[in-house]
Amino acid sequence: MQPAFVIHTGDVTHVSKMTEFDDARTILSRLRAPLLAIPGEHDVIGAQGLPRFAAAFGRRDAAGRGWSSWDQGGIHFVALINVGEGETMGVLGSEQLAWLEKDLAARTADTPIVIFGHVPLFAVAPEWGWTTADGTKAIALLRRFSSATVLNGHIHQIVEHQDGAIRFATARATAFPQAAPGTPGAKPGPLAVAPGSLLGVLGYRTVEVAAGASWQDISLAQG
Fold first, then answer.
1. Residues 16, 53: contact at Cβ < 8 Å?
2. Which end of the chain has less neighbouring CB within 10 Å, N or C?
3. pTM value > 0.90
4. The CATH number fitting domain 6-219, selected from 3.60.21.10, 1.10.287.1770, 3.40.50.150, 1.10.1790.10
5. CA–CA separation, 140 and 145 (whole Å)
6. Residue 208: which H helix or E strand, with range?
7. Are the CB atoms for 29 and 37 separated by under 8 Å?
8. Torsion of CA 111, 155, 10, 31, to 10 degrees
9. So where are the chain's domains?
């Protein structure tokens, strides 16, 4: 079944090099569905990171700041930006939160809401930077909706969480598996896996949204 669109939730590149953006754009141009992309922290390294990302992946935009929203098939989609360098990493910021509040206020409580971001909004592992410092403010804005789904990347593995009617899910990456939080002696960063098992811990996600959202996580070993 042809998807309505494909979204890449960030870290399209590793170190924001122009050649990496060019290679990624070439590979992703083979998709037969519309592509949306939001940056991860690896896409915004240095002064040229974000401009290169924007040039490679044109996107819906809110006043030139990157975050955006759109309505499609009776569903309200929102793409947030919570990455940067230094103190802006894992932060939405007051301007984006004010925009989000205004954006969601225009939707009725029974409108299905789907939020995309790079870093998880909820606290997966704050000690590893796997959280959004002001994510609780965004989550509070979602509480009045009967169906809200928040989908993120960043941690390269599947973690699900529920807060009332709000469902959160992170996803596998297509490269660089990472250890699970709480694993003794583990730290964030690329994880060595047993020979022959790499494709089983990498993958992508398909999502179907009607009144609510359902998804299937597919490893690269499967497909």
1. yes
2. N
3. yes
4. 3.60.21.10
5. 10
6. strand 203-209
7. no
8. -80
9. 6-219
